Amino acid sequence: MPELPEVETIRLGLQKYFVGHTIKQVELRLPKQFHGDPNVVIGGKVEKVRRFGKGLVIDLDNGYSLAIHVKMTGQLIFSKLPVVIGKHTHIIFYLDNNEALLYNDMRQFGWIHVVKAAAVPEMPFFKSLGKEPLKDLTYKIFVGLLKTSKKQIKVFLMDQTKIAGIGNIYANDALYRARIDPRRSASSLSQQEGERLFSAIEAVLKKGIAAGGASEWHYVDVLGGKGKYQNFFLVYQKDGKPCQRCGTIIEKIILGGRGTFFCPNCQS
Q1: Whole-angstrom Cα Rg for the chain
Q2: Where are the beta strands (DSSP E) in the chain?
């Protein structure tokens, strides 16, 4: 599933190519993924694009917004007209510049909601989000959250109600960078370990954004290009390979239902 760096890359692309353009028509090829009246966005000009954790909000000049979660396989891709429609193209926004924004989704888990802009914060998905790294998650808040949780630290980092935006890729790499065993409880971390982890989270997320995200699954940017962070994985998906720090073989276990990768020596 796209995480903070991937969704931020999508946001930057939408901000560059979508803002200032007017939606002329909406084609719903799979209506179940579009919630609300499509007619209220027709004629609306895109004013800005915001991101909250792994969610996107596209604000129009008519007081409405498009709230979007791409989930596992959703893609937002610009196309010149005429549009080449793929088997997984489910929603098409036709624009005033002879282009269209396509929403593709192979597994159909994603969604697009039309809501009044003022109602976005009250949507259950956005309302439940915790603080976000690189935004409003301070070290003091982070440490406070750690102290109150008995969850395994890897599972804790991926809890969107605690911290918004971190998923499996960046949780694995941050814990490796901070030399912390993913199986430990969040509350067991010392102050020094908490500081290292907070810095590691910010470092891997910034690296992910700079690399345009990781295209290890279906993720692409708004022009259909792949990210490059998969070329910089520290430990994610490297089970069976030697640790780049000490040479110990990376192991894989399952925590919280997700593959977890770590060095049994560096992260002991």
Answers
A1: 20
A2: 23-28, 34-35, 46-52, 55-60, 64-69, 74-80, 89-95, 99-105, 111-116, 251-255, 258-262
Sheet holding 23-28, edge to edge: 23-28, 89-95, 99-105, 74-80
Alpha helices per DSSP H over 137-258: 139-147, 153-157, 168-177, 191-210
| pLDDT > 70: percent of the chain | 100
Of the options 3.20.190.10, 3.40.50.2000, 3.40.190.150, 3.40.50.300, the CATH number for the domain spanning 4-127: 3.20.190.10
Domain ranges of the chain: 4-127, 139-262
Q: For residue 40, give the nearest of 64, 68, 61, 67 by alpha carbon.
A: 64
Q: Do 29 and 100 contact (CB within 8 A), yes or no?
A: no
Q: Could you say which DSSP state residue 193 is in?
A: H
Strand partners, 26: 93
Structure token pair of residue 191? 């102050």
Please report where in the chains the tokens 């499509």 appear, as a residue: 38
Q: Are 167 and 229 in contact (CB under 8 A)?
A: no
Pairing of strands 34-35, 46-52: unpaired
Helix (H, G, I), strand (E, B), or coil: what is residue 55? strand
Whether this prediction's pTM lies above 0.85 is answered by: yes
Which are the catalytic amino acids? 2-3, 54, 258
pLDDT of residue 1: 80
Bridge partner residues of 48 (DSSP): 59
Q: Quick check: 38 and 111 in contact, CB under 8 A?
A: no
Q: What is the mean pLDDT of the chain?
A: 97
Q: Are strands 64-69 and 111-116 parallel, antiparallel or unpaired?
A: antiparallel
